[in-house]
Write a structure and sequence with these properties.
With 322 residues, the protein is an alpha/beta fold. 44% of the residues lie in helices and 15% in strands.
């Protein structure tokens, strides 16, 4: 089933309204907000690696308010237990039965703050719910609501006592990016409104939670030509063969890449994916899925440089194949 031009234009219009709505709280960061909304509508999760005070929590709350969803924040610490994230069975003396009390992960938008400060056991508590949309406690599955999105943050400073996320968990994040500091004009604008301490409270709903699933279904119907899919596959194969790369892009990474490209294309009002969509999303979608070898890291090689080489060496399709 193909998407009509009217539906594509309506999707793009709604997407832009969502972005502009979130930008009321996150000033001067439209590109990052577009990535976050794309991640949500692609039914994925977002990893933010950034310094403190750049608006990561504000972004999560503004997204939740935009889609009329719930929000929770989990501060990850070394003593955090898996049950503190997923929930626990509690004995009810009145009914003489165990009852499940859901944890903070049962929200529309879950902010996992400084996820690398928790133990690997607690980090892995997020794996099942991120991949399958459910939590299993004492053998009983408990599905989470839709939409569901985890926004995890990592602090690039103060690495002592932290636990690096394993590659298997990194691959479960659809995108990785950073908010960054605002530019001069955006900073001045924020300072002029300093009396407004919580900008997320000004963000009103644009669509309902159920509409997010409908928009995701529309994005799945976007056409990706065989030549574009071949381009994605060749980029992944080239990443695995790169001399500085220890671990390249997996098949799951390719599936995530195509899913994001479809949403990105539809957000531009197009019912088909073009090579430029693939190029624009290369760093946020593939950057955390490529692991450099030790010698390359010691030599100062960056993921950005490797992706730049891949995009230069792997030629995109010139024409769409009928």
């Amino acid at each position: 089933m193909t998407i009509s031009p009217h539906d594509a234009a309506l999707f793009a219009q709604t997407f832009d309204r969502m972005v502009m709505n979130v930008c009321r709280a996150i000033v001067g960061k439209e590109y990052v907000v577009r990535l976050a909304v794309t991640c949500m509508l692609s039914e994925g999760h977002l990893l933010l690696e950034d310094n403190p005070g750049t608006g990561k929590t504000m972004l999560a709350r503004a997204l939740a308010n935009t889609v009329q969803g719930s929000h929770s924040r989990i501060q990850f610490t070394p003593d955090l237990l898996p049950s503190d994230v997923t929930g626990v069975e509690v004995y009810n003396q009145e009914t003489r039965k165990f009852e499940f009390r859901p944890g903070p992960v049962f929200r529309s938008i879950v902010l996992a703050d400084e996820i690398n400060r928790a133990s690997p056991k607690t980090q892995s508590a997020l794996l099942e719910v991120m991949e399958e949309g459910r939590v299993t406690v004492d053998g009983v599955p408990h599905p989470v609501d839709r939409p569901f999105m985890v926004i995890a943050t990592q602090n690039p400073i103060e690495q002592a006592g932290t636990y690096r996320l394993p590659e298997a968990q990194l691959d479960r994040f659809l995108m990785k990016t950073s908010v960054g500091y605002p530019d001069h004009n955006a900073t001045v604008s924020l300072l002029m409104d300093s009396a407004l301490r919580d900008r997320a409270t000004t963000v009103q709903p644009v669509i309902g939670s159920s509409a997010v699933s409908q928009m995701s279904a529309y994005a799945d119907q976007v056409h990706a030509d065989a030549s574009v899919l071949s381009y994605v596959s060749r980029l992944a194969e080239a990443s695995r063969a790169h001399p500085n790369v220890k671990l390249g892009v997996s098949v799951r990474g390719c599936l995530a890449y195509v899913r994001c490209a479809k949403t990105w294309a539809l957000a531009a009002g197009r019912s088909h994916v073009i090579p430029d969509d693939v190029k624009e999303l290369a760093l946020p979608v593939l950057g955390h899925r490529i692991l450099l070898d030790a010698e390359a890291e010691f030599a100062g090689v960056k993921i950005e440089h490797v992706l730049g080489q891949l995009l230069t060496e792997v030629q995109p399709p010139i024409e769409r194949v009928a």
